[in-house]
């Protein structure tokens, strides 16, 4: 994707206000929905024969009180308006419980038709769930027509065994959010955002001396994802797995990356608190910097409106080389074996990941638009990006995004939990010895792989 942004992005230009957003439903022309009686049916496309197909949709965004939940409902409403013969029956589930719920429902013979699955959990889903590769649902020509214009790098990164099995959906990469007012109070230039971990530490210590909290890398993720851990290690020149498939957690690059984050805590530049507490502190104007997914943008914008000058910058460097963030978010997987429901599921998936879908996903949920043309198209996101520059640093870095790395075996998600709970959190927040703790986590992850 072509780079289009710059460091130090604010609402409109440097330090300017965010203009009021136009209603997405107004933009898409979504009117009141007609009441339809849901009934499972077959036939071409949605159902045929005057019947309506009802699809069960499991989503960890749906039903949450934040903008992710609101955005998901807008997507469903817009789809209903455009597809009156297909009804979506959504079900919310906590992100950490997605795999457990899917396994339970599958074992009972009642899996959802479509599921939103986080990328950190996708390897285990591939190994344990009866996913129908999304690329196989439409005719080859229809597939090519749909993915034309989507980020080629992202599509390549999510391929598994040579094909796209889950459609890239709510995708993001981590960026640096910062409070320009706290920078000013600390005597820092808000137009010169920190570009490296060393610069973040220096700025954070200056902020701490002024009476506020400094910085926070949200690697101890409440959702038990390791996308930020991978981003940190990759940007320090490392990886979770070597080319031969062996674990690289004890390599100097991995140890050094987490040691650098531990140093932020030990030095007082970062508070030793949970990610949820840090997010609340930043939203409350008490923390100057937080490195987190762009998915937090819309909630931060709401919290900052009229209270502090919210800005963003690209994911920071750990070395002299460019940063190499890893994507987070989720893909859409299809589990139904019924052909008519598969056809309806493809209509739903292709709508969510089409022009209208990505307009809502970006404007209302804070995820990245995976269709470059939408960024400048006035019918979709052209107006939004003309007014709001805060996602541009993330779009700048899409070209350097590293693919999400899966641990081997059927217990891949348990391996992620071991990494996050038994290595990352103790090292970064509780001063555990980085080399020793990573070695112990690596031993457990090898054991999990051996049992799969």
CATH homologous superfamily (4th level) name of the largest domain: Periplasmic binding protein-like II
Query: What's the tally of helices?
Result: 18
Mean pLDDT: 87
* Order of the strands making up the biggest sheet: 2-1-3-8-4
CATH architecture label of the largest domain: 3-Layer(aba) Sandwich
Roughly what fraction of the amino acids lie in strands?
Answer: 5-15%
Class derived from helix and strand content: alpha/beta
List unreliable stretches of 5+ residues: 1-48
According to DSSP, the number of beta strands is 8
- Tally of separate domains: 2
Instruction: Give the terminus-to-terminus CA distance.
Output: 37 Å
Order of helices and strands: HEHEHEHHHEEHHHHHEHEEHHHHHH
- Helix percent reads 40-55%
Note the overall shape: globular
**Largest sheet properties:** 5 strands, mixed
Report the radius of gyration as a whole number of Å: 22 Å
Description:
With 452 residues, the chain is of the alpha/beta class. The protein folds into 2 domains: 24-172 and 328-400, Periplasmic binding protein-like II (D-Maltodextrin-Binding Protein, domain 2); 174-326 and 407-450, D-Maltodextrin-Binding Protein, domain 2 (3-Layer(aba) Sandwich). The protein is built from 18 helices and 8 strands. The protein has helices at residues 24-28, 67-82, 98-107, 122-128, 140-147, 152-158, 180-185, 197-209, 227-235, 252-266, 275-283, 297-304, 339-352, 355-365, 382-387, 392-396, 412-430, 434-450, and strands spanning 53-59, 86-92, 114-118, 167-172, 174-179, 289-293, 310-313, 328-334. It has a 5-stranded mixed sheet. A 3-stranded antiparallel sheet has the order 6-5-7. Strand 1 (53-59), helix 2 (67-82) and strand 2 (86-92) form a beta-alpha-beta unit. The longest helix has 19 residues, at 412-430. It is globular and about 70 Å long.
